[in-house]
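Final report, closing paragraph on structural work. Over the funding period we assembled a curated collection of sequence-structure pairs, and we close with a single example.
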Amino acid sequence: MIGPEDEELLDSAPAARDLDARRRIKEFMEQDEEEIERYYQERYENRNYADRFGDGEAMADSIVQKERLPGIKDPNLWSLRCKMGEEKATILALMNKFIAYQYSDTPLQIKSAFAKEGLKGYIYVEAFKQTHVKQAIEGISALRLSTYKQQLVPISEMTEVFRVVKESGEVKADQWVRIKSGLYRNDLALVEYVEDAQNLIGLKLIPRIDYDRRRGRTVAEEEDNKFKRFKRPAQALFMSSKVPDRVQRDGSYMIFEGNRYDHLGFLHKAFRMNTVVSLFIVCTPYCATVGLLSPRSYHLDIVPKPVTSDRCYVINYTITESVVCQ
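Its predicted structure, as stored:
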């Protein structure tokens, strides 16, 4: 049996807990920043995400990445506009200035500076304060555009700045590829250049142009055209004589609807690296007859005849690649 005294004790227990909790919160809030920082360091410095969430394959990749992100005690990263083409020279100028002022009364306070390969017109400087960056770039003519504005890179984007793009081991210049999707799906193309930093690949291929398509449609006509079934134009070399009033010249190239064509009618266009495939390249006899398979120093040892059966032809070129024509 519970007596009146026991009931009073039970009723007063929650009130006592509330008072104790309020007292601890008040004591915690009255601490200064250093004491609060020391408290959390002592509590969590020996624990990592593996202790809290488990390790091995079950541990989320996002948690691991967040653990490696820079903290509030790490230097900030600043993006600075630089004169185009002088990114690396500007970094060397900053390094020389750092060395020259190293033992002076006003040494530079920046921690590092670097230029990202493939990013034109920008460099990055690592420092704790914006004033340190302004002091470092003062007097450097290539950074005149950044004298009054320095862009702070968010912590969540700092790792992306340092991301190293793996050079493509499969796709190289003068190699044959096929396009995976879009208007040129399954079309054969020759690789002219590869830009790993920009994730771009320049291709030479036979265009697909619908000369009969109406240009300059109204909005209503465009809406009606969406419901019509799209018919992909056939492969054919570009003929400027069919649209003479819409062709512009750019040196030895012809520009039509934003695309570049050479004097033979081949299309030269940049694609994303992940839109092409370089394995098991199969070429059609038409590509060989129009000259796509004999660029620069390539010469055909055998010129295939039109195939009327399931038989395949293997053509060996002066390079190590073999292209199968079907």
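The longest helix spans residues 4-29. DSSP finds nine helices and 15 strands in the chain. We thank the funder for supporting this effort.
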